[in-house]
Amino acid sequence: MTTYVDLVPRPNAHHRDEEPTQPGDLLSARPDVVLAAAGLAAIAALVPLRGVWVAQAVLLVLVLTLPGVLLVRALRLPPALTVPLTVPASLLVLLGTGLGLNTVGPLVGVAAPLRPGPVLVALEAVCLVLLVVVATRRHVRTADSVRSFARHSWARLLGRWDLLAPAVVPLVALLGALRLNAADSLGATTSGPVAAGTVVTGSLAVVGAVLVLGALVGGLVVAGRADDVFLGATLYAAGLAVLWSFSLRAESIYGYDVMTEFRKMLETIDAGWWNSFRPGDAYGAMLSVTVLPAQLHALSGVSAEILVKVVFPAVFATTPVIVYALCRRFLAPRWAFLGAALLVVQPNFGQQMPGLAKQEIGFVLFAALLLVLVWRSGSRISQAAMVVALALGVVVTHYSSTYFGIVVLGGGFVVALLASAVRRRWRQLGTAWLAGLAVVTLVLGAGLWNSTITHSSSNVSDAALGFEVSGFDLLPNRALGDDLLTGYIKGNTTPQVSAPEYERLVTELYAADRRYVLPVPDAGSYPIADAGSAPAASIPQLLVGFGLQQVAYLMAAVAGLVLTLRRRSSPTERLVGAMILGSVAALAMLRLSGTLAQAYNQDRALLQALMVLVVGVGWSAQALARPGRRSGAELDPSGRLKVVTAGAVVMIGALFALNSSLLPAASGGGRINLAGGGEDFQRFYTYRAEVTAARWLGDQPSSKRQVVYADRYGTLRFLLGTGRQVGVFPEIVPAVIDKSAWIYGTSANIREGEVRSQTSGQMATYRFPREFLDAHYDVVYTNGTSTVWHR
């Protein structure tokens, strides 16, 4: 039997009801209600103190947990779901409250409803309604539940000193990232190139990465003896450490897409109101980067920068915990931990997700949607209500997650429906109808939100236009003479071209579409030169990294087939098997089709699909470790378990070491979490001096009427500093630079002397044409990190 702190129940746990509470003894018999009321009072009391950092931290914890617990309990969902659903349910309450407040506020005379006063009143009112529902309903305890508000469970949970060990891991990662930033700031004023993949050995950041590896491997080893709360805490700590090691690795905002998202956050926070009419503005139409951060800022006083760099990653770090709970619905703790850990060790879990604020929130809600779909619930109505709420939450937080979710859930529902039709056993549909409900909600919600409410459906029309122009575009990067397997391994990565070839492509582009550009007379005498080849993917990376990923996909696909086709599979297992097969098929199509890959980034789709696939990976590992029989003699169960566990440790350890820069030579160059230079550093690291230079340039009156040139990553710094995207060209090539243009050079251009730009779907890295700029333009601004040229 499980203990009171288990995250999810063990199989065959028996439920028992408490004696119903007496109305006259409500407070003494329901300490959960008392503590919830105290939490709401604490929020109201601390909001006036939101300028103090301690109050900010407490407010964020309360706001991101208390509303969710109340919602889960008001719906009377299984108590075992309280912990994994706490954060996503809180997000639902915040999103719903914020959207309603933003809509109703102006109608009743509140011009800026997303200010502290209105936001606090609205949230307190909604939570009080939920609290009343919880307090007036009969309270049911089960032997396998997490009694989050019960007096004794709080006392015992606070006495769990073993939970302090995982907490050290993200703290070390945080300090390590800040220490590396300090070193980078000191080196920002120096000149000369920085070697790609330079790893800061012996630093605190390396210690943090080693601790993450130890936590994941150690969790696999002790999973048979540890309870679910400890394993969940370990996963959360490891995931948060990985995310913070990347998100905090910049003086300013870390990431790529987040530059645009950050501007949307600032606009909404400054206005105190969100304009829902967003024609062609998919980012501005997402509540995850508009209304939600405005609410969190209003309640806690935390700046938008801290929300992006610290808070959003802390929210997204709950995804592995939710996935662990999803796996535990079918698997033993060790194999459930393996599945969730496989998500954490993906290369883009830490590298890309902290720079995708909207997708961080969307993924948390999508993972919670999958969990609610497969969990047994006493009330189908409550379960269906939560499914609809989570599906709508995904719709308003991230468009691509919505579309890919339709494919995954829709494929699972169709396969389950066909299986029931073939067997003529319609009762075996079981919870598949909930998947159908989720698909309908996603489709209708996306259509209504993107087309009717926000008018932001340009991404759908762009994808449709891509198919009309290019068709399926099978393996676009497959070189002449490559076989299908080689083309598949290459995938849909952006091909690299030489500097002369890139110059030719750019010149043709300007001659056809930008004839108004007038270069200086002798610009053609300054051809661009290659900056040296980027570090090539090494043999270990190709053989170990790619091979281990394919092994995981194979394990998932086999599990999906077995769960879908075998007779004794339960309806829920058949649904999960069907979703696994649908996810594998969707990932294969993304890798084969250049048009589909253009519509949804393959790496991000992989992370979303893994939320389902890891169930199959864990199921296959569990099946391999299960005792079997050969020639009538039973095999040694402990020996088989040790072999499969060792294989799981090798898989997790090797993938993390390759993808985290712990083995930079094997991974083809260090990532930004441990590196002080190279492509990864140039792409994601933003100096405050770069933003300062961009703001200075944006403030010049003539720059608003003239073209600004900045390379691929310089355009992001310029966007962050000015909010401007129109009239910014990424082709810093002398032959196409207008004679009256402004040229914005970033740290990568000035210190490392490199330019990275892309045109016609092809990327080039070439030498920054400083000699040409100094000969024909004046340096009108410089701060040692960034320089601006103009005539």
From TrEMBL:
Which keywords label this protein? Membrane, Transmembrane, Transmembrane helix
Q: Region Disordered: what ranges?
A: 1-25
Q: Where are the transmembrane segments?
A: 57-75, 87-112, 118-136, 157-178, 198-222, 229-247, 306-327, 356-374, 403-422, 429-449, 542-563, 575-593, 605-622, 643-663
User: Can you tell which superkingdom this protein's organism belongs to?
Assistant: Bacteria
Q: What name does this protein carry?
A: DUF2206 domain-containing protein
Organism source for this protein? Actinomycetospora aurantiaca
